[in-house]
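Input set for joint prediction.
Command: fold jointly, output tokens.
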Amino acid sequence: MNELGEFALMMALATALYGIAGYVMAIRQNRVDLYFSADRTPLIVWGCVMVSSVALWKAFITDDFSLQYVWAYSNRDLDIFYKISSFWGGQKGSLLFWTLLLTTYMMVVHVQNRKRDLRVVPIAMVVMLVITLFFLFLLNFSTKPFEVIPVPPEDGRGLNPLLQNYWMVIHPPTLYLGYVGFTVPFAFAVAALLTRNLDDGWIRMTRKWTLISWFFLCMGNLFGAQWAYVELGWGGYWAWDPVENAAFMPLMVATAYLHSVMIQEKKDMMKVWNMALILLTYVMTIFGTFITRSGLIQSVHTFDEATLGYFFLAFLGVIVLFCVGLILKRLPLLKSKNELDSFLSRESSFLFNNLVLLGIAFATFWGTIFPIISEAVRGVKITVGPPFYNQVNVPIGLVLLALIGIGPIIAWRRATWSNLKKNFAKPVLAGVVGGAVLFPMVPLTDKAEILSYVAFVLCIFVMATILIEFWKGAAARQSLHQESVPASYSNLVWKNKRRYGGYIVHIGVVFIFAGIAGSQAYSVDIEKHLKIGEKITLGGYDLTLEKVIWIKANETKERLIAQLAVEKDGVRIWTGKPEKEFYKGQNQPVSEVDLRSTLKEDLYLILADYRGEQFDPVTNTMATISDGEATIKAHVMPMVAWIWMGGWTIALGTVVAAWPDRAEARRRLERLKRMEGVFAPAQQE
Amino acid sequence: MFRLFQIGWMALTLTLSVSVAAVPAWSATQMDDLENALMCNCKDKCGKVLINCTCDHSKKMRKDLKGHLDSGLTVKQVVKVYVDEFGETILSAPTKSGFNLSAWVTPFVALVIGGVGVRQIMRKWIKRPGAASSGNAPAPSAESAENKQDAPASDFSSRVKRELDRLED
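tokens >
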């Protein structure tokens, strides 16, 4: 099976090469036979990569330690769940997984569009095949997942304990679906540039793909934050690590694109800008991959064998040069009739929203690469960590939050003072009243608390603008169509999916801002060494250490658990069980936090230290903690659950916005009927 | 009598100094400030700010920091001790002086330049208000007929615009 996997990868490479050559020659020589031949290659490449992936999965499930990769990331005692996820636990497998997702996207796009615009789609396929070729080249010649160990060992080294968490099973695929998904709009944008079809056809064709990729990238970031929160055991969810930044930057640029593209669709403006933004989004995803796999920047997330840097740097360079050159070449064709009616208009607010989103992306990029710049200029290595990002990005983020509220209530084209006053009066009043109510309730003793207070006031303002939009729309439906209240709201959303789906996403973003503001400014923590029966008090909770126990979970894992009774106002409300897990062959134990999460606050418990004999990974033994003492670190963090709630709200909004729309499908069909195709199948539809 | 007073005074001084020594002369906030300012410099290069790090080395670092604070050093002085020993890379953020200042300033400078750029672009794009409301629109040419947006001055366009504005309200 391993030989088949290796062979399938080689076949995929050869087929991709043939596909590229076939498409290009068919288009240049207008040869239909060659076109139909090349048009089968995306499916074949996907099939080959799928065979290869199944082979690797089989090797993991059957404990085939003759493969170096399986030996390095799995062992016999590993749960089947994690054996499956070990596939993407290391450099080689994650590259294969990336290629699998890329070819799956390519196959679906191919099937979906094979009878559509035959001017753009084949070129988009060529672009996707070229990108696939790059990854297949790495898999065949640089990082081979099917490398064999001559004398297979009895057991594997095992998966990094930090990766043995259900969030790590979900987080990488979600993030990769986002990263890889942006290949689709990128490919169509490049195809539109190459074929000079620079109307908004490529935008409409890829709108859903962009939205889906954005959604996965967004959720991938949030799942990563949840993993850090429950697994890393430091009481936080975002550390502005270079690899986190690498996933955050394309999200910001893509968000800017999703907004500005509306202006192009509505007013046929900003063609160059939108083209640049979608190309930049893809460049940022490759930059992120370069950071993760180059070893250039140290991070908890980077891969051990960070040897691919030069390949990705070269690939990144080629993409940047190609995209810049192409845009410059097509500049005359991209010129659009850019006209604004007024400074005070929704178009202007979108421009400023773009500026702020790109400002955040740039600040993050700058912070990520500044250590390299410093070393190059001064020869001094420095670190750019969370204090930098918090000080730079928080104020810019607050401006963005304000714009989320301002944007939807400014009229398109031209806002007059009268409609501004009318639209802003109630939300501003809500913000002022909310601010006044909060003022005596929240402490304002330091900068973080003041910024959080400002964030809360803005959250109230933004939420008011959105809810008023819903209320006004539903009220209009109730009076015009005599609909009931629930029907008016559901019809309002269902008949304007894009608009109200977008508003639901904005509600999710407000929840996230509120959660960040609450948890960053008002968290309290305590760390104390406790004997059995001793108590600590924090944020109204009384925590009493009841017992310290150790359990031999399996041959490779021991668990040390501290049990704490949690009381509030003298009533026992919960039993906390933070623990440390000791894995055979690992020097450091892994913290498993325990948390009690409510919308108001999270009680987050960490077993920081314990008294007794240390676990000896060499002899794989540990004495019972006879005297039962433990150091407990407890955090009370307000509103963390709001961040996750915001994530699910964003998911709901994206589903609504991306839901198929009959009216839109009809418009697209009419547009397709008007289009000229190169080959007959296009005209059949 | 004097001897007894001397012994008593010494005993009192000793008791006071012991009790003072038992209570740290620094606050938890100072410790937090230090843990926020410094990176964990473990062998594994975990790349975490000390306050976020849970590895064994971070425990040793915290103990060391407490020792420095116990000896009477201020937060700034402890940070300087670490920078002298490990270099600037031990700091969790660039200093706000010299070349490092560019790290802090550049994002905001870029944002201001971007803002000025957006404003300039908008000025260029905004149609002259006179043209939109004068009603002295030229007779519709073939070119303007092709592009309806070129003739917003007509009564019809003004009416459409008003209607659209009302809809947005």
